[in-house]
Amino acid sequence: VWGVRGGGRLCYEIVHEDVKMGSDGESDQASATSSEEVHSPVRVRLRNNPGRKISTEDINKRLSLPADIRLPDGYLEKFSLNSPLFEKPLSRRLRRVSLSEIGFGKLETYVKLDKLGEGTYATVYKGRSKLTDNLVALKEIRLEHEEGAPCTAIREVSLLKDLKHANIVTLHDIIHTQKSLTLVFEYLDKDLKQYLDDCGNCIHMHNVKLFLFQLLRGLNYCHRRKVLHRDLKPQNLLINDRGELKLADFGLARAKSIPTKTYSNEVVTLWYRPPDILLGSTDYSTQIDMWGVGCIFYEMSTGRPLFPGSTVEEELHFIFKLLGTPTEETWPGITSNEEFISYNYPRYRADCLHNHTPRLDNDGVELLSKLLQFEGKKRIAAEEAMRHPYFHCLGERILTLPDSEFTYTHTHTHTHISFH
């Protein structure tokens, strides 16, 4: 991912892990296409030559399509420079129609390959786009006639169509039929949990730093736009063979308008749920995600989950045993919390995080401590965490990269990480 200097240019690379080889060797990068409407007209300068034929490049620029798109046979012959498609500004209705004619929004445009997983509402398949021949992930959401689309699917679509960042999974297409809603995402080789398993739960510490920075970078982008993920866990962080990490599964995410707005406290997988939420708080902001970042940071560093509780009571017990049972001094108001009182926890003293994270240096332990604060308002924010001394070795330039940009290089071709 990052870390090599040469010719005055700073680039970054991932350290090769000794992971299992892939069975098919495929790691195609999905296209950068999106079928949602544009908010501002795409302005393209075309040479004013009435006799000139319309090219694929003209269509790609006009509709913001990737260079490797395959247009249907005979599609170009329908247009001239005087066609409505090239009028300015381009209307949203015409853009939708044009994308549909190319093949977006249609199930037959994608070929299902392997089944990747199944949940309560959705099944995820590995697929291939006929438009680009690239791999995609097809999230097929079953629609119940009485209930319609699950609210989680509606949230995911409404948020992801507006989130465009190198460290957030890209939503390429949306296909709506009577029986299902299919979300077409870029394909990434595996999630962080699988990556940990394939590395024998021992990720190189350089890669831990790079993965953590990418997680913070994607999260900071969300938080700047008032979006809370609310379900951070290794299974929702996807990684490709270039070491790019991307936030995924925004089904529980929420767009917030006021920092103290009340939401459900039944969010975030138990192991990554902060203590204030475990104790019933529904008043939270972006800090809800930062506790999960700390838990994931620890898990990458040690190879084991930090607080693997099976119940809320056990989860809190694990937290207090490591960080100390909170008091009125360490967590104002806690002694008035009815749930906290009912559990009647022993008075644990805080243990030293250094004793549990031998592979982390002092800066890493300090950052972990800032993430694992009882009170949400005391947790370090994503933007501040990106500037923490733990990341200083990556250089200043990494903080100013455009949202859509990331540079990944490998010193040798044989060090590419392979997945199965």
TrEMBL record:
It holds the Pfam family Pkinase. It catalyses: L-seryl-[protein] + ATP = O-phospho-L-seryl-[protein] + ADP + H(+); L-threonyl-[protein] + ATP = O-phospho-L-threonyl-[protein] + ADP + H(+). InterPro entries: CDK, Kinase-like_dom_sf, Prot_kinase_dom, Protein_kinase_ATP_BS, Ser/Thr_kinase_AS. One of its GO terms (molecular function) is cyclin-dependent protein serine/threonine kinase activity. ATP binds at K139. It comes from Cyprinus carpio carpio. One of its GO terms (cellular component) is nucleus. Its EC number is 2.7.11.22. GO terms for biological process: exocytosis; neuron projection development. Signal peptide: none annotated. This is cyclin-dependent kinase. CDD domains: STKc_PCTAIRE1. Residues 110-391 form the Protein kinase domain. It comes from the Eukaryota. Keywords: ATP-binding, Kinase, Nucleotide-binding, Phosphoprotein, Serine/threonine-protein kinase, Transferase. Belongs to the protein kinase superfamily. CMGC Ser/Thr protein kinase family. CDC2/CDKX subfamily. It is an enzyme of class 2 (transferase).
